[in-house]
Amino acid sequence: MVAIGWLGNACYFSRFLVQWLLSERAGRSVAPRVFWWLSVAGAVLLGSYAIKLADLPLSLGYGLTFLIYLRNVSIAYLGPKAGRLSRRPALLLAGLSGLGFLGLALHSATSGTADALWVAVAFLGQSLFGSRFVVQWYASERSGDAHFPASFWWLSLSGNLLLLAYVFELGDPVFIAGFLPGPLVQARNLWLLRRAGA
Predict the structure, then answer these.
(1) Phi and psi of 157, rounded to 5°?
(2) Chain centre distance of CA 48
């Protein structure tokens, strides 16, 4: 099962490596199609690993983003022909996710299975980290183009830092390796957006 976690990390890392390299070449933050395929694969693999470990905050996060990645694949290939979903599905997904995270956090904190402070850090980090793709999805639906708005990168950075603190506390090398390179990529994309005036 650990090999599945490492393979999921390889998918997640390589998607941002490719995105970063293509963004540097373009001189702006871009969202290549391969990013979405690697995201789908990474969510399946790391979601399976998190489920096996019975880590509820991470399992829920991977499940939520899996659906959003699939929608972005459709938008990336079909553009405006993919159609636009109304605002309601995005708001419903965001609301249900928030309630789910809150319920799981309260359950975990009251069950005495983990330190309540670290559970709160994990759920706050996962809420921010997961909401970045809800924000990205909404922006892509509005424009008909799968792209990353600046708010995506800010949510990524803040959520990633909290989750990095959480996984260091867990001491799981698979999750540490997965969250460690994120802040560099997120900060660089914010810089590219700022330089491009977006």
Answers:
(1) -65, -50
(2) 15
